[in-house]
Amino acid sequence: VLKTVYDKMVTEAGADVMFHSFVCAVDMKDDRNVDAVIVANKSGLTAYKAKVYIDCSGDADIAAWAGNEMANGDGKDDVQPSTHCFVITNINEDAYNKGESLYGGNPKSAIHDIVADAEFTIPDTHLCVGLIGPGTLGFNAGHIWNVDPTDPESVTKGILRGREMAREFFVALKKYRPDIFANAYLVETAPTVGSRESRRIIGDYIFTTEDYFARRSFPDEIGRNNYFIDIHKSAEELTTMKGHSDDRFERYKSGESHGIPYRCLCPRDLDNVLVAGRTISTDRITQGSTRVMPCCLVEGEAAGMAAAFCLGDDEINIHKVDTQKLRRRLTEEGAYLPRLDTDTF
Prior knowledge:
alpha+beta, 11 helices
């Protein structure tokens, strides 16, 4: 249903959609401006030109290929582990609702027995699960390390491991929670692994850990965020760190949040490219918070609106957008931007 809602919103707004297509290269007009993006699909290779490009590739592909300076993972090319999500259906929903929680943070969850069971190769207790339909559970479970989202061979290996891990979870859950899974079926694995981290652009501003813990506001902020810093354990930390990875950093209290500066969407070395999503300009630690979907949503809306503003200028330059005008328009569209009237921070 959500897909059809989005389809209608996008097409009624006048956008042209092209599925099953990948940007695979860029042509540069000069050192700071992209002239065209090369797209691969069943038609072969096609060049598309625009005045402004918005990179929502998830890995900042356009910005990276155009030559903007990038950061990657922890600086040593180690990124957070990936997860291959899956769906199990025909469960006993009554037993699921009344029984012990399967969540990995629950010390009584069956996942602890599963990890200790030599029959299975599931490496850790990461298990998030929820009902997504009648008798149907969606799983965000298990970790796959050493998956580089920018390397297709690495991603392929991750998918192969993820599919096998989903099968192991299914068999193990049948073994340890037959009250829920005795008659269940593993019906779907995700089309690819879920990647938590890869490249980050170096932008006009790098949002820092200090900013996060100061709950800092910014005159050019285009959204607010209050998600906790969610950095999943490395393979080494899995054996050396006690407790849950969620407990490493202080969490915001109810009502607290920080601003997301427009400048974090602006690649420092490019004038006609904006970036939205988990690859905006932050340090490694705060990316563990800003990588989540609500942030990606508000960044995407702001980037699209800022790009439209650029089209009315004689000189296309994303760094010169009037951010107060941008904030006013975002607020008119329902964005949550406190202090809009004062703009003193």
